Amino acid sequence: MKKLYLVLLLFFSMMTFSQEFKWGMTGNVHSSSIEGIHDFSRGRIAPSLGVFAEIPLESFQRSIYSPLRYYIFPVVEYSMEGEKTILEQGRQYYRNDFVAIALYGKFHFYRGFFENFYFMVGPRAAYAVSVDFKGPVINYESGPLGDDVTKKWSFSASTAFGYVISDKLEMYVRFDQGLTKVYPNYDYRKTWNRLLGIGVSYYFN
After folding, report:
1. Please, which residues bridge with residue 68 across strands?
2. What pLDDT sits at residue 9?
3. Which of 164, 161, 166 shows the shortest CA–CA distance to 196?
4. Rounded CA separation 98/128 (Å)
5. Whole-model pTM?
6. Residue 78 contacts residue 48 (beta carbons within 8 Å)
7. Burial of 153 by CB count in 10 Å (0-12 exposed, 13-18 middle, 19+ buried)?
């Protein structure tokens, strides 16, 4: 009998989980840049597109004692990043495209004035699938800048602040701060990635 209760408990837990589990697509338009290496640089305006899952951490998140709902929010995305440099000799374009995985903790307010707002924070790992440079090559007297080699893997901390428009649609502002070098051969500065964007998430269920 105890085994039957255990099986029933597991079954209903799975049913509850399947009803609360959500997934969908997310996309944003952002300005990305690389710290401390290219003179007179400007951010690259480009999109990201990916898929996400929203997994609740608690079964009873609507308790009157808790102002938040808690979720794990993994995201897999294709992100177009880099920057451009404006020089007298012309413009240089550094286009680095990544496949990235982020694992957010999502905290959704559901009471009071902020009931439709949420924020997310978590680590992000990105792998460079395309590294492209276009523009004039400048020979500096001090030697090369060191951006001839781009590191394939990069890691960053990602945060987002969003608003729930409906059961299917959310919008957010997101900021990523790199924690590892883009150019390992350049020792003068850290050359971290940065990204600031605005986007939407659409739920399929």
Report:
1. 109
2. 52
3. 161
4. 4
5. 0.83
6. yes
7. exposed
